[in-house]
Amino acid sequence: xxxxxxxxxxxxxxxxxxxxxxxxxxxxxxxxxxxxxxxxxxxxxxxxxxxxxxxxxxxxxxxxxxxxxxxxxxxxxxxxxxxxxxxxxxxxxxxxxxxxxxxxxxxxxxxxxxxxxxxxx
Amino acid sequence: xxxxxxxxxxxxxxxxxxxxxxxxxxxxxxxxxxxxxxxxxxxxxxxxxxxxxxxxxxxxxxxxxxxxxxxxxxxxxxxxxxxxxxxxxxxxxxxxxxxxxxxxxxxx
Lengths: 121, 108
Hints:
The complex is a heterodimer. By secondary structure, chain A is an all-beta fold. Chain A contains no helices and eleven strands. In chain A, strands 2, 4, 5, 6, 9, 10 and 11 form a seven-stranded mixed sheet that branches. A four-stranded antiparallel sheet of chain A has the order 1-3-8-7, with no helix packed on it. In chain A, strand 7 and strand 8 form a beta hairpin. Chain B has no helices and eleven strands. In chain B, a hairpin with a 2-residue loop joins strand 9 and strand 10. Chain B is globular. The model of chain B has no long low-confidence stretch (mean pLDDT 96). Classes of the chains: A mainly beta, B mainly beta. At the A-B interface, strand 5, strand 9 and strand 10 of A face strand 4, strand 5, strand 9 and strand 10 of B.
């Protein structure tokens, strides 16, 4: 079955960077794109960006432009999200989400388990 | 950027009741790009509806989606205890996405 398994929780100091990984299994990794979504404590879902697993092309939410980089390693079937210049506002659970397409509809069929990133001095 | 506004913010209901949740887009959207997700506490979101009205695999038929242009709804008939969660609508198009702020269903 399809699985997205993310790396473990991180604790970072303000100003640092964090990299979260998302390892895919159960399907051909390059067939679909992956988005990253975060959720601050008690808040809603916030889309951060998307990467084509096949081409490596990316789109970022304007809010994160210049501060986030999405990459992937096709040989390892793994996607990565790096967020730089962390502040306490970046404390959140970060999810990777795998796309699927049906008749022109693209949606997030599969989700990772989430990675808690805590930013504190 | 498309903004999705969900209403109401919170609903208090009893098991067995039915409910309709609303999602309004700030501009006209292609209904094929509208999805709904359910998120239970401490869990990742789960896809319920895609293309505004198509149920995802394994989703009970008490969940139904409808709507077009700017107004979309998620209906749940006969609420089960496991349905009390937060529901999000999502627009996804041109490799960009946005979520509504969510509607929380709580047990009365």
